[in-house]
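Researcher: For the annotation table, I need structure tokens for Aldehyde dehydrogenase family protein. Please keep the output clean. Sequence:
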Amino acid sequence: MTSTSIPPAELTVLSPHDGTPVGTLPCAGADEVRDAVATARAAALDWARTSPEERGRWVRAAADALADHAEEVAGLNTRETGKLPQEALGGVMAGVGTLHQYAELGPVHRGHSLRGHALASDYTVAEPRGVVAAITPWNDPVAVAAGLLGAALVTGNTVVHKPSERCPHTGARLGEILAGVLPEGVLVTVTGGPETGQILTEQAGLDVLAHVGSTATGVAIAHAALSTGAHVIRENGGNDPLVVDDDVDPVWAAEQAAIGAFTNAGQICTSVERVYVHRAIAEPFLEALAAEARRRNADQALAPLVDRRMREAVHAHVLHALEHGATALAGGTIPEGPGSHYPATVLSGCTEDLPVITEETFGPVAPVRIVDSFEEGLRWAAGGRYGLAATVLTGRIAHAQRAIAELPAGTVKVNNVFGGAPGGAAQPRRASGAGFGYGPELLDEMTQVKVVHVEMPPTP
């Protein structure tokens, strides 16, 4: 894979709220990217030799620095991506918490003692891989970046970070804050669009390519790694199903569906992207879900989509569904005025061949298909090319256990669309990626294991 385009000189971001310019940043070209990788490589040996405890102290200091600038970074995030202020601040503080978590976990990340000869020692050592390229998304830019950066740094790797071109000011300021308290060269940030990202992933001096974002970009990164030999970690797109059984309260189920489909305007990797509801409760469920959507639209409780390009893609899925027999019970039209707002939308009468069902829409859209049994809903939910997460709402333990066993997803949630314990981790499947992208297991992804055998020489 070779670079085919030269990055533009600058990157301008427009506000998704009203279309006004947020600011302009330079795009890193081939020379700047090579220099960034070389800087990280030059710092790698000393950083790897730093004790895990000391690295933990550095990462903890970086977390504290981010906390001191939380309001500033959250404000940039809101201006660039449209994220609601409270949610943007929550994302920054989640990033602070993640950095603190890895600062504690890093020093206790350890190898294993192996059982060999009684007069020999056998064990494994976890060593840093080297230089990590972290390519992070715009929909939760600080929290996601903090996970990859924290795990990489605390295990002794240096990092070149490329934030999304949709929030470069947020990513650049994050890099300034963190790098400002870390040893020189340990964390380097480059800004730019897809061209800059492609140049970065093709660098031979990288040991890890860590990516959270679209499936198409993840596939391109995996192809690049075939040439460079870099270890790949990627969490990519999802098309997460929600299966609603006939024994649950339809109003509560509709609230769960609305939370899953409309939070952050549907711009979450694990958003509910398709709903399979049992025919026995379909009518009250759809009424309640449409009411939830209309309430959010009336209260203007939804953030805008990140830009008009995203809005066009979301609306194309909705229009295609409407042209092929679906009905909009709420939303479904582009509002007048500036910015890239899109209403919470409920589609009934959806069939399995619609892109709004088969692909990742990534907007505040809840496409609903009515099924005649829980088994039918489970069968449809298990289909498709993605495997990020799935949710079932049921009061039957047998149905819950069957869903857990049969749904081919990295995460299965029962009776809570966004439930999960602290420290959880998951392996995406199929087109949704590969490797652990967060949690304690990410420390394993960022290290490589060396097996050691030691015994005494023969006595003369």
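Researcher: And a one-line annotation?
Model: Residues 85-105 form the longest helix (21 residues).
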